[in-house]
Amino acid sequence: MVDLSKLKGLGGWLILVGLGLCLSPFSWLSSLSQDDHLIRNGPGNRLSDPAISLHPAVYPAHLKFELVGNVVLLAANVCLLYLFFMERRAFPRYYVLFLFAFMIFTALDYAIGFYTYWTASGALKQELDEVLSGQEFGVARAALTAIIWGLYITKSKRVKATFVN
């Protein structure tokens, strides 16, 4: 039997979890900046253009969904950082929840974007085509990340020994 006291602490594979949590806020802030740019300067400003046939509620609703989702995920990431470094017992449960919430958000964002693409025309459709290209890999990456790190967090002896406060 393994002595759990030797596994206690933020070491091993948990270093990668911590590194990911520390770097992720920069990604969320970048996404928020892109959302803000699209809301202020993007194709959403041209919805009144008669050359663009798109249900007026679809694109702005998609941008708002993305904006709110990114804010919520950024806030959750910051809370998880606190739980991680304080080695709180709640960290594993909330981290797994966070991983699956991110996976669902990514899939919904892609699905809404895909729907928006098929309801758009003209220049907006071309711009959305550029935005959506390659995003299916982001959905797959989010799913694989949730599965792999979710399994690690739930099965690891180091995790069980570390997050006890």
Search tags:
single chain, 165 residues, mainly alpha, elongated
Please provide a written account of the structure.
The protein has one domain (4-162). Helices cover 77% and strands 0% of the residues. It has helices spanning 4-7, 14-41, 58-85, 91-119, 122-132, 135-155, 157-162. α2 runs antiparallel to α3 (58-85), α3 (58-85) packs antiparallel against α4 and α4 (91-119) packs antiparallel against α6 (135-155). The longest helix is centred in the middle third of the chain and has 29 residues, at 91-119. The radius of gyration is 20 Å and the shape is elongated.
Quick structural overview:
The protein has 165 residues and is mostly helical. It contains 7 helices and no strands. The chain starts with a helix and ends with a helix.
What string, H for helix and E for strand, traces the elements in order?
HHHHHHH
Unreliable stretches (pLDDT < 50, length at least 5) are none
What's the number of structural domains? 1
C-alpha-based Rg, rounded: 20 Å
Rounded mean pLDDT score: 83
The biggest beta sheet reads: none
Question: What is the overall silhouette?
Answer: elongated
For the secondary structure, the number of strands is 0
